[in-house]
Amino acid sequence: MKLAAIVLILLASGQVAQAQHAGHDSTKAQKDSAFHAMQNRGQVVMGVDQYTSVHKFEDLPDGGRIELQRDVDDTAGVRIIREHFREIAESIKNGDFRAPGLVHATDVPGVDVIMANRKDLYVVIRNLPRGGEMRLTTKNPAVVKAIHDFLAFQRTEHRTEPGHQH
Q1: Residue 11 falls within a domain, yes or no?
Q2: pTM, entire model
Q3: Which of 63, 100, 107, 117 is the most exposed, fewest CB within 10 Å of its CB?
Q4: 3-state SS class at 70
Q5: How many domains are there within the chain?
């Protein structure tokens, strides 16, 4: 069911891209349309409205931290975020970390290195008042760099700054 919804969102994103290539949008509108399409894919993959959720992507000396919380009290949304983080941790453990590529509709920097060295990665999930956080830690310098590359891409795509809200 979730996969079918992702496919529909991806198809809709393709229609937006076709209209843009036809010259119907300015550069700013294209960027906004691409951002909107990414937000929609994120909602499908993560299960919560991306516009009413706060992302933080923080580099740390031994890896990084990802935080996702709802802007408002939303018991169901909080549960979905926490479940999503548990699913991501399990997918990393199993070497199947496709979610970022689905959300961003592209290869995400750092993912290949993280997956190739996942045995060196320690993932910790922690509940936060309106969502959760995922800590990715390692002693492997190549994986730390890959995590930082991954988080830098996320900050750019989600239009956030290190440790700041979106």
Answers
A1: no
A2: 0.70
A3: 107
A4: strand
A5: 1
